[in-house]
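tokens incoming
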């Protein structure tokens, strides 16, 4: 309330394709919870050209640029607006969000949710039941005669009698009981046989019934608002009654059809209260921290995601979520249920793509540009298999802004290929490439060290930066990825927007590469992961490039996880290598000299990463940050995991709100913005160049 100030000023408003953007004078009326606009400031004393109710609205900064934002009213009406610069946009967004939150909470306090009561299906079928016996005045028209449209000026609306709302509340409670009984009846069916609990029609019935109940609750709250306003005489002509958030709380009311209650604030674990406390940004050091690899220990965590577990139990929640999504909807801001999460952060998933460091280091050992490009393609295609934890499609934690992850790998020099003859691809599918894991007692000269660091550099849009280097081999890779997820019906698609850069400093070569799209398929049954799309790898200096296609399975026939590609010399347009196979099984490489070599990805040994113990990690390092969520998921306590996850997300929102109010920019720790990308603050190519310059000056 300290920041509830009425503000006004000019903004550009998008009208339509023909008219485009137009300057309009906007006024934020905090007392009434309204955003109004006029043609210009001089016409401010006249009737507004447009008005939006802010209660229940969503204020969203646009990902298009730093000036645009949208105001999405609960009624469905939207204003797309543009400020003169990023600072002005932040000022408007923060004030609108404060006003919206204030009025939304006020409505919530005045209109508490319905209390659920259970009724059996048998009792509801009786003609003598309360739900069937109604007075003549209790018809649908008298119940639902208020729409979400603008009321005509001067038209007298009859005041609804209080007993009508009591009757509606009674009927809503009965309907909720019937709906829960329906869910229980379906879920009690056997999992096999003629009619099962996984029947597609029954699953759809469960989803649509939940969506219907939420819609009816919205309508009931409109009636409550109208009745309260009319009693106070405060419903002026022309007022728009806003849609509210569904009053059936998904987390509290539907867990396999049973009511669930979260513990009160005083009963929350100390770890949750700690997560919810707002960390003062000024107290957190943003200075880069040098991680000593000697403090890192071999990772012993092995969280495979092969168990459906809670996914099976919470199918009704998945269906309810799906019923509220639209085709093509951006899922970036959609909070997904906790039980579909992996037990690791997205930042750690990027590290797991580096689980074959021997193949990574071997790239620079290639004796020619052609061989180095082929080795990079071989390494690139082997990275995705280990990046996925098991066959079940689950989602890693969304990193919070400022979150980091550090690890390293130690690789015996004897296990790294030095020439084409010792490359792993020479092994047949029946042979297993054995990599030594016993590094204790070896001197520094006996192994290479690959260091990795990742940071969440942006929240909206969600962008991660990661960097890995092997100082001894003078090679490093820098990448930034913006994950854009969309709902595609019975699957979810994730586009990995961004670019990576591999630098081989010994050869003065740079390789740019992109990442494929990922899809979670069959999300109603047994979800599984599929990669799709075309990626390119290019080296401008040598003129070699690679084109790789990840093929999605066609509707009829075809193989799963198929990948094809070719490496060619751009100057002569000569193909020097072709690859085909499955990215999670066997890959076949055919070279220009006629040789064919195979790689069985399921038999490639994995080098475990080395991670500092939790007690030595900083508060924003992934494993320490998410430790309570991970522990709860391991214990199978979904409610507790949800509580911890919600606390972290709430803390992030509070800190973001504080930065907006103080107009403080977020400072990253390890990555710097350069153009459209993010670059590690101390990349190897800078330190090597500086060392060479210093040596030259000394000489």
């Amino acid at each position: 309330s300290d920041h509830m100030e009425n503000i006004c000023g000019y903004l550009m408003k998008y009208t339509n394709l023909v008219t485009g953007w137009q300057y309009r004078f906007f006024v934020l009326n905090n007392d009434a919870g309204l955003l109004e606009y006029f043609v210009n400031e001089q016409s401010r004393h006249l009737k507004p050209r447009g008005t939006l109710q802010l209660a229940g609205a969503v204020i969203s900064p646009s990902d298009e640029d730093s000036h645009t934002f949208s105001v999405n009213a609960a009624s469905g009406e939207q204003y797309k607006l543009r400020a003169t610069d990023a600072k002005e946009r932040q000022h408007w967004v923060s004030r609108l969000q404060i006003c919206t939150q204030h009025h939304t909470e006020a409505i919530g306090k005045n209109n508490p949710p319905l209390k659920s009561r259970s009724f059996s299906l048998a009792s509801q079928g009786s003609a003598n039941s309360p739900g069937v016996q109604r007075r003549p005045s209790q018809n649908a028209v008298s119940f639902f005669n208020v729409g979400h449209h603008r009321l005509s000026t001067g038209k007298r609306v009859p005041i609804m009698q209080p007993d009508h709302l009591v009757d509606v509340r009674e009927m809503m409670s009965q309907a909720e009981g019937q709906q829960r009984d329906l869910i229980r009846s379906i879920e009690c069916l056997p999992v096999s046989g003629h009619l099962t609990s996984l029947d597609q029609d029954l699953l759809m019935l469960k989803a649509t019934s939940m969506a219907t109940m939420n819609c009816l609750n919205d309508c009931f709250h409109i009636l409550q608002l109208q009745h309260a306003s009319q009693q106070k005489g405060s419903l002026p002509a022309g007022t728009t009654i806003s849609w509210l958030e569904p009053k059936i709380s998904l987390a509290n009311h539907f867990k396999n059809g049973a009511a669930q209650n979260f513990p009160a604030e005083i009963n929350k674990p100390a770890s949750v209260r700690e997560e919810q406390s707002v960390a003062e940004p000024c107290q957190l050091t943003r200075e880069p921290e040098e991680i000593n690899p000697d403090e890192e220990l071999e990772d012993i965590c092995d969280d495979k995601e092969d168990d459906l577990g809670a996914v099976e139990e919470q199918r009704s929640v998945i269906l309810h979520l799906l019923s509220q999504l639209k085709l093509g909807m951006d899922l970036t801001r959609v909070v997904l249920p906790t039980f579909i999460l992996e037990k690791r952060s997205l930042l750690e998933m990027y590290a797991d793509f580096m689980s074959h460091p021997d193949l990574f280091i071997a790239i620079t050992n290639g004796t020619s540009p052609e061989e180095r490009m082929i080795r990079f393609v071989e390494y690139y295609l082997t990275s995705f298999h280990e990046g996925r934890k098991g066959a079940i499609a689950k989602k890693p934690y969304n990193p919070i802004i400022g979150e980091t992850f550090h690890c390293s790998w130690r690789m015996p020099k004897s296990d790294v290929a030095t020439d084409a003859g010792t490359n792993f691809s020479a092994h047949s599918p029946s042979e297993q490439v054995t990599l030594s894991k016993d590094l204790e007692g070896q001197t520094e000269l006996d192994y290479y060290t690959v260091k990795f660091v990742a940071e969440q550099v942006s929240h909206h849009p969600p962008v991660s930066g990661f960097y890995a280097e092997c100082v001894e081999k003078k090679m490093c890779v820098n990448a930034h990825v913006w994950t854009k997820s969309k709902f595609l019906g019975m699957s979810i698609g994730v586009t990995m927007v961004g670019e990576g850069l591999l630098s081989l400093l010994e050869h003065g070569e740079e390789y740019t590469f992109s990442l494929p799209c990922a899809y979670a398929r069959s999300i109603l049954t047994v979800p599984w992961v599929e990669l799709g799309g075309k990626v390119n790898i290019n080296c401008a200096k040598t003129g070699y490039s690679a084109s790789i296609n990840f093929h999605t399975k066609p509707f009829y026939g075809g193989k799963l996880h198929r990948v094809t590609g070719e490496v060619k010399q751009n100057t002569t347009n000569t193909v020097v290598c072709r690859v085909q196979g499955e990215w999670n099984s066997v890959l076949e490489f055919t070279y220009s000299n006629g040789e064919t070599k195979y790689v069985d990805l399921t038999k490639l040994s994995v080098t475990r990463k080395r991670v500092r113990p939790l007690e030595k990690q900083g508060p924003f390092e992934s494993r320490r940050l998410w430790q309570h969520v991970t522990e709860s998921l391991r214990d199978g306590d979904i409610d507790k995991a949800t509580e911890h996850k919600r606390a972290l997300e709430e803390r992030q929102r509070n800190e973001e709100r504080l930065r907006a109010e103080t107009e403080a920019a977020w400072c990253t720790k390890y990555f710097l913005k350069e153009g459209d990308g993010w670059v590690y603050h101390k990349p190897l190519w800078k330190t090597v160049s500086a060392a060479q310059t210093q040596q030259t000056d000394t000489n």
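note: The chain has 16 helices and 26 strands.
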